[in-house]
Amino acid sequence: MKGKAFGFLKKPEPEISPPVRVTHQQHVDIDPRSSTGFKGLPPRWRQVLDASGISREQVNANPEAVLQVLDFHINRQEGMPSPNMAYPNGNPYNMPKYPSPHYGGMRNPSPYQPQYGASPAVQRRFNPPRDNRSFMYKQHVKPPPNGPPPGGFSPNKGRSPNAAGRGQLGPIAKVPSRQTLKYAMIRAVEIQKANPYSKYSIVGDKLGEGATGMVFQCLDKQTGKKRAMKISPSDMIDDVRNEIAMHRLTSNHPNICGFLEAFDYKNELFMIIELMNGGALTGYVTNNVKWNEPEIAYVCKQMLQGLSFMHSQHRLHRDIKSDNVLLDLNGEVKLGDFGFAVNLTKDQPTRGSIVGTPYWMAPELIQGKQYDGKIDVWSTGITAIEMAEGEPPLLEVAPLKALLLITTNKPPRLKKGPGSVQWSGEFKHFIKCTLRKDPVVRGSSAGLLMHPFLKKSCSRSYFAGFIHQAKKAKDKAKKKKS
């Protein structure tokens, strides 16, 4: 009886629950004697390092920076939560250990396959693509280290263009709260549940790919006007909504592509955008087109006018490069592709997420630091070099190695001009102002509009003639190849 009685009173054996939120910490030490230069490097990290093209000498010279770009690639670009890394001297970069929701074009693969047989909108992986160009994954102000040119120019002076968007200097918009921005973005997103092909028909080949989809030329059946149609899979609805909101809120400026309307139809999202019939700037810097300073200054001025307007509205583009600078045969230059654009708020006056394309990325972005509109200024400087030299610096090296060199090398500078021509002191100083590694002393988009180099800008009509001739030469070369 006692046994039975005690049996009823017997406590049940405790259940052991599975571990929750366990993190594995791996310690990596610097070891000059090992083949990688590190001791305890995870296998995946070692594999990526071996394929990166980063030399043993570069590892020995900058071990912390090498770990930093490996962390950048593994955690953010591959989208995998890797083990917690214990850096040899702690983690000086304060980098998060899990991927940000947005990091360049390197999103999760999608089964999306449009009915007309085009390739998926997002398909790149770390294995270096055939064209590195397409690889996507405050304070006391110090005096400029190189001194200003004659006239006392200061790259951080000036105020941003006003909302009228004519490039003139004007007041800066009030910084919105997170709640105010949320309501503004909701109001800006209007997607019709309708068939876009009843109003537009696709004509010609694919124009290109953006951060969230593919872009085609289309024809408005009612007006006969040509437009651009960007098509994305419906599972990217959150990204597309952000792009629509940023584009619509920003498109009331002559240097930013206009946004027209959007559709949701048969598991695809469609954005109808202003068509720039000259295409992307990329096509004119990589086809043996000779650029002189007046043309380069003109494009830089137009870019900075668009960026200055965006920054005055507390918005960042975050993917400035020649692919996203669009030209029209009448001489217009406009910024496009707002797939990575973001709005700053009172609650979040800077950003820290990783987006963009490696060769145009600012050092502070790669290092996981907080950043502001100065990252767009850095990318503008790289694009200026691209016009002068035909490609951005470091394009010949693998993307991961490029990230390391951007953070450890001195800022890029102009090489000698074409033939015996030398670039002017104003152009060289403009590049220095845009590519200062410390964003505090880097020029602002508004301040750089007053730089002496931009006074060399050609007229719009002259630039239109330049683009016409360049396009003829480009089309002729294309026909020869085919």
From TrEMBL:
Residue numbers binding ATP: 230
Transmembrane segments: none
Cofactor names: Mg(2+)
Catalytic reaction(s) noted: L-seryl-[protein] + ATP = O-phospho-L-seryl-[protein] + ADP + H(+); L-threonyl-[protein] + ATP = O-phospho-L-threonyl-[protein] + ADP + H(+)
Pfam family, one: PBD
Domain of life the protein comes from: Eukaryota
Bias (Pro residues) ranges: 142-152
InterPro entries: CRIB_dom, CRIB_dom_sf, Kinase-like_dom_sf, PAK3-like, Prot_kinase_dom, Protein_kinase_ATP_BS
Entry similarity comment: Belongs to the protein kinase superfamily. STE Ser/Thr protein kinase family. STE20 subfamily.
SUPFAM superfamilies xref list: Protein kinase-like (PK-like)
Keywords: ATP-binding, Magnesium, Metal-binding, Nucleotide-binding, Transferase
Domain Protein kinase, first and last residues per copy: 201-454
Coiled coil location: none
GO molecular function terms listed in the Swiss-Prot or TrEMBL record: ATP binding; metal ion binding; protein serine/threonine kinase activity
SMART domains: PBD, S_TKc
Region of interest (Disordered), residue spans: 107-174
Protein name: Protein kinase domain-containing protein
